[in-house]
Write a structure and sequence with these properties.
Rossmann fold, 2 domains, 6-stranded parallel β-sheet, about 50% helix, Tscrpt_reg_LuxR_C, DNA-binding, Response regulator transcription factor
Length: about 210
């Protein structure tokens, strides 16, 4: 099974001792979250994700001025691994740029560190099941952004996005919609702008997080 978890045994990968204490202490025992590794740098996080075979990685976004990469960078690398684990961002940073950057990198969810234990446990379970796990305030901000006039997608853009989500190439989409590949690329450029992303994968992820794609 892709998610490799049961209610009785859920392996969670933690970024740092501060997160470890937040999760391993207050989370009720009945949640059965098993912490199998921890790391203090993005490089360690990527390595541990590759070798510890976790179901979920809890990832902060900032690791200090001397870190070689950010949490979003590490998330992108982790999600590119074979049999990649899901990544749940757990951080103090909640700017639009942080949120969208994490979503674009492939994060399945986004929580703030002041989230209550039961909310964190539920988010880990949701992420392990391949579902979105957004803090209410984060979900509200994403929805507000998507509902802005400049973010509304046209019916044709929605068709293109749905075909992208189904795994079709630009050439396939052009054939399906009886348009040129240049037109498809133009639609994608408009979609990227409206969703504030820079890639096909990020566009699909952002649209799903906001509920405009199932």
């Amino acid at each position: 099974m892709r998610c490799r978890w049961t209610p009785d045994a859920l392996r969670a990968r933690l970024r740092a001792w501060s997160v470890l204490n937040t999760v391993a202490g207050p989370v009720p025992v009945r949640t059965a979250i098993d912490v199998i590794a921890e790391a203090a740098t993005p490089d360690e996080a990527v390595s541990a994700a590759e070798h510890s075979n976790p179901d979920v990685v809890l990832m902060d976004l900032q690791f200090g001025a001397h870190a070689a990469m950010t949490g979003a960078d590490a998330t992108r690398r982790i999600r590119a691994l074979d049999a990649a684990p899901y990544v749940l961002v757990l951080t103090n940073y909640d700017s639009d740029a942080d949120i969208l950057g994490a979503v674009e990198a492939g994060a399945s969810g986004y929580l703030l560190k002041d989230a209550p234990p039961h909310e964190l446990a539920a988010a880990v379970r949701a992420a392990a099941a391949g579902e979105s796990a957004l803090a209410p305030v984060i979900a509200s901000r994403l929805l507000s952004r998507m509902r802005a006039p400049e973010a509304s997608l046209s019916s044709r853009e929605m068709q293109v996005l749905e075909l992208v989500a189904a795994g079709h190439s630009n050439t396939d989409i052009a054939t399906e919609l009886f348009v040129s590949e240049t037109t498809v690329k133009s639609h994608l450029a408009h979609i990227f702008t409206k969703l504030a992303v820079t890639s096909r994968t990020a566009a699909v992820s952002a649209a799903r997080q906001c509920g405009i794609l199932r």
